[in-house]
Each structure stands twice: as C-alpha cells, then as structure tokens.
User: Which sequence fits this backbone?
C-alpha cells in the first residue's frame, strides 16, 4: 500500500494532547497503525508536548528547543521506502478500528441514506460525527464545507475531490476553509472512516434538506 495523503501537524499535536473527539482520535489511530511516516511524526509531536509540559513545570527549557523539535517535522524523509505490513483480524480493518467492528465490512448493518450511499455509526455519542460511509462507484458525496475539522480515512476503493485522489490508507485532513465534493472513482464501493468535530455545513439545497435525516 502506498499512502499519499497524511495527517497534518496540527492534528497530530491535538492527538498527542488528547484534545480530539473520540471519532477523530479513532481515525488518527487507524492511520497511524498503517503509516510509519506519520508514526514517526507522532513521536516527535509527543516529544514537543512533553517538552512543553516540562517547560511549564520547570520554566527552564532552552528557548530554541521547541523550534528545533518542530523543525524535525520538516526534515523527515518524504515517504517510507519499505512496504507497510500490518496484522489485522479483517485485512481491511486497521487494528484500532477492529476493536469496534467485529465482522467484515460487508456484513455490517449499513443504513442507506440515498441510493448508492450508506453509513454505519460508530457506537458512541459525543462531539461531532463518527461513522463509516459506503458510497457506490460514480456517486458523489454531497458538496459541503465544515464548521470544524473533518478527518476521512479510505478503507476500500478511492475517491477524488478538489484536493486530490484518495486511495486505501490515505487520510483527508480538512479544516473549515475547504469546500469539497468527493466523487468515488473506483470500480468498487468506496468505504471510508469519517469523523468530524462539528456538524458539516452543506452548500446545496438538497444537502440542507437531507441533513436532519443523515445526522451530519
Ligand atoms: Zn501518514
């Protein structure tokens, strides 16, 4: 698997600080489980968080320590040279997700929103949305912007949007500046793990009409 779209620094720092919603933390953990490149960056992020904590406690940290830690983000290799090998109960499920999904993706009780689009909610309440989305080939997700952040990890198939093309393992890490309409461009269904920390803001009338139904 070659991964082309990764978590951004702000998301990794928020994850290290325990500041993400449960759903967003699950997407981060799932991506980290299969992406050595982001795991390495997450280690630096933990170090930055630890250094900040220590500096708050001791007030003796060198002025350039944080800058030098942050600079390491820029000095990482572009991509891992070795293939990613992960042991998973269901080969499609990253280990953190498999803790909550105990059957193959095709056997989940998918709920249909509209023809070609179905979802499966993760079993918890809380801030934002956390669910699996299954979208048929050639179908587009409704155009939307975000009130907050949206994290999407592709588990099967692929989609393209204004940002690029996203395949298995890739994450789309979007903030509230981006309006996008993902279109599934694989021959099979595209299944994604998706989480937001606030409701999406649909930009089409149809999207606004179905929002109360879909719960986004
Ligand atoms: Zn990554």
Assistant:
């Amino acid at each position: 698997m070659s991964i082309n779209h990764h978590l951004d620094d702000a998301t990794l720092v928020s994850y290290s600080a325990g500041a993400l919603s449960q759903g967003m933390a699950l997407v981060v953990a799932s991506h980290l489980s299969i992406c050595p490149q982001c795991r390495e960056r997450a280690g630096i992020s933990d170090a930055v968080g630890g250094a900040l904590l220590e500096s708050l406690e001791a007030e003796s940290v060198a002025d350039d320590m944080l800058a030098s830690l942050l600079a390491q983000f820029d000095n990482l290799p572009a991509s891992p040279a070795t293939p990613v090998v992960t042991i998973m109960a269901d080969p499609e499920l990253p280990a953190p997700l498999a803790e909550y999904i105990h059957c193959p993706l095709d056997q989940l009780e998918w709920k249909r929103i509209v023809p070609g689009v179905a979802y499966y909610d993760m079993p918890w309440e809380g801030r934002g949305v956390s669910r699996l989305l299954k979208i048929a080939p050639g179908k587009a997700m409704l155009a939307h912007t975000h009130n907050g952040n949206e994290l999407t990890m592709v588990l099967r198939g692929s989609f393209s949007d204004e940002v690029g093309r996203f395949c298995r393992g890739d994450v789309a890490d979007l903030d509230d500046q981006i309006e996008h309409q993902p279109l599934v461009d694989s021959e099979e269904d595209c299944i994604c793990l998706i989480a937001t920390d606030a409701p999406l803001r649909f930009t089409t009338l149809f999207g606004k009409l179905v929002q109360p139904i879909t719960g986004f």
